[in-house]
Fold this sequence. Notes:
Blueprint (H helix, E strand, L loop, with lengths): L9 H17 L6 H8 L3 H7 L3 H20 L9 H18 L1 H11 L2 H9 L9 H11 L8 H21 L6 H15 L9
Helix pairs in contact: 1-2, 1-6, 2-3, 5-9, 5-10, 9-10
Amino acid sequence: MNVRFRDINEKKAAIFNTTIALIGEHGFHGTSMSMIAKSAQVATGTIYHYFPSKDCLIEELHLECKKFLNAHIFENISEIKDYKEKFFTIWKRFIHYGLMQPDMFGFLEQFYSSPYMENIKEKYRHSAISENNIHDFLVEGVKSKQLKDLDINILLTSYIGVATSTIRIILYAKVNYTETHYDQLIQIVWDGVSNENKYEVQ
């Protein structure tokens, strides 16, 4: 399924969608600029007009995918005032995003386990581009005492790790999950990281 990238012209969007598909099939090393140009039906000169190198293309594609993901899962989230409700909503939207955009999900998984991840972390370390909305949302939860004062990487692993594992199981193992299953899973995560029951009498 092609991604409807926002504020990007048609040729650039075609290049991005083609790159996602080819990397899913051939991996980073097996995908060349000439392959992308041919499959996207654009001239090789055109692709280099937008992107000086394959590395630049992949890094910019990652940023656009991240923007797409954040736009989906954080849309109108400020209208929800209760932190717990936000916690559940964002997590479920992440699941739905992965199921609606399996090719993009696969691309991001490959990206985050590749050398590109280290490169982009260093390049954009002090830039607004490096903003991580989910990271910031969890930090907000710790500061407001909604979440336990745990290392942020533990919180991210608990929150997003369970979500990505769930997406993989549904996509690749063809296991059927219902909204009830999602409710049960995110409740387990919440019970593990929240302060909700901290002061209850045992």
